[in-house]
Amino acid sequence: MTRIRWRALWSKRAWLLGCCSLYFLSPSAGGADASLGEYRLKAAYLYRISQFIEWPEADKAEQAFNICVLGTDPFGETLRELSARTVASRPITLQYPSTPREARACQIIYVEEAPKKTLNELTAVLGDLPVLVVGGSPQFIDLGGALGFVIEGGKLRMELNLDVLRRANLKPSAKLIEVAVRTIGSGRGRP
User: Fold this and answer.
1) Spatial contact of 52 and 173, defined as CB atoms under 8 Å apart
2) Contact by Cβ (8 Å): 94, 65
3) What is the set of domains in the chain, with CATH numbers?
4) Quick one: how far is CA 19 from the chain centroid?
């Protein structure tokens, strides 16, 4: 195997091992502990995913990187741990918009349970703004979300909608696409 291919493979494995170690370090007992572990892992994924998306240049100003939760906040205190981190030298701030219109200031927005009507309203309001819409409900990417979390075999996985990412002018790295268990859309063409 060539050195470059080996390095790329190792980098992908290191990313996966980092995410898996967070999974195994989180509580796995039933009930509330399992739920807490799931959302601790989702919070870690939100941060790691931000590193594997190419954000538009105009969006890389010296302002905060806003991670938002629309609707019910399932994270509790686990998401607050991200406030001490940065994305491309931008400090992370957490916001909790009450309406889709307020979500326009977000770079990443998480929606736990999104009825189709709410998701349609959110995507209409955001238009082609560079906002990564992430959700935890089944078939989230089929309903217009960009990235959906799914549980498969007791493990947290990701699904991607490449057309939604393209429309938002967000470019996922090849590594992010490779670790997705399912992708839809081609991500090609003009937004």
Assistant:
1) yes
2) no
3) 3-184 (3.40.50)
4) 13
Q: Extract long-range pairs of 138-142: CB within 8 Å, 24+ residues apart.
A: 140/114, 141/182, 141/184, 142/184
CB 160 within 8 A of CB 172: yes
Nearest to 78, CA basis, from 45, 52, 116: 45
Per-residue pLDDT in tens (0 to 9) along the chain, 191 residues: 444 544 554 455 444 444 443 433 333 334 444 555 889 999 999 999 999 999 887 556 568 999 999 988 999 888 998 989 999 889 999 999 998 999 999 999 999 987 778 888 898 999 899 999 999 988 899 999 999 999 999 899 999 999 999 999 999 999 999 999 999 998 665 44
Scanning the chain, the segments in alpha helix (DSSP H) are 3-25, 32-51, 116-126, 162-167, 174-179
Distances (CA, A) of 113 to 41, 76, 137: 17, 16, 5
CA–CA gap between residue 176 and residue 178 (Å, rounded): 5
- What is d(CA 108, CA 50) in angstroms, rounded to the nearest whole number? 8
